[in-house]
Fold:
Amino acid sequence: MAQDGPQTQDRVEQIARALAPHFDRARRKLAGQIAQAQDGHLIEQTEMLIFEELNRLKTTAQEVGMQARVEEAEAAFSPSGPAAKAPPQGSRSDHAFHGQWAGGPAGAALARGHRREPASR
Structure:
């Protein structure tokens, strides 16, 4: 882990709470499968069931952990965006196509009355 501060501990607790029902469900399912195995056939009858259940739990743990991190990031994100100063209207950064603003080369050509000739076929 990168840091072990109070924020990290809070994150650990939040993710642990989110994972708890999934671990409990898997624990009960595994206990049921082991309890139902016939005497002398425990490994044979439970090995793949346990393997598959733990793989599902691994995937679920990753998904739940990822979702918790996404929700944390979304909660920290300001919907109004960063506090950076917006450029004034009509500035070059307002235009997606370079040279298309009123003072740019294309604008100057239009002001002089120059037009491009269509391409020959």
User: Anything to note?
Assistant: DSSP finds three helices and no strands in the chain. The mean pLDDT is 79.
